[in-house]
Amino acid sequence: MSDDANVARAAKLDTATLSDALDRLGVVGQCYRIAGRDPSFHMTGRAFTMRCGPAATPPGTVGDYIDDVPAGQIVVIDNGGRDDATIWGDILTEIAHRRGIGGTLIDGISRDVALCRQLGYPVFSRGHWMRTGKDRVQVEETNCVVNIGGARIAPGDIVRGDADGVVVLPKEHEARVLDAAEEIGAAEEKIRDAVRKGMRLDEARAAFRYHQLQSRPRTE
Predict the structure, then answer these.
(1) pTM of the full predicted structure?
(2) What is the DSSP letter of 30?
């Protein structure tokens, strides 16, 4: 994980709380139908992005970028949701783990799940299947804006993944999203604590303004 202060703040928040903050601010940042290849996986870091497409003749590469990814960053691969060929496997997992890369996020599928689980290297994707992407898929562009599960991710955006999925915090909104998420998280903890001490849930929610926490601020 990066020593970036906002990355550290995001790492302390779960994706559900961050998702509520995104909704409150009207920012689309939830990556639809993306999940960890193991429910224990979690990751937080800034995005190193790339866009892939069908292989040309002769075919291009799918993995030669890996040594250019800074430690702590998240490899973010837009493969258009393609699920008939992989874009990530054991060689990339081993190198990424060894180099201290923060994780991998794919709008598409991966393979060699056993190794990423063994190493504890977090891979989040639409699924996994064994058929290679070699000669079927190639990297078209790196450090570009991509679409992951309907969320726009630009290079350097904060990516946060946990057992509930993945969210992205766009750079231009990250401070506001984190402020809102921390406020939501603190209020929800107060509600839980009040209920543990015997308060009715409806009373606790009213006391800590639960129903206003995720609402967008009204403008006059």
Answers:
(1) 0.92
(2) B
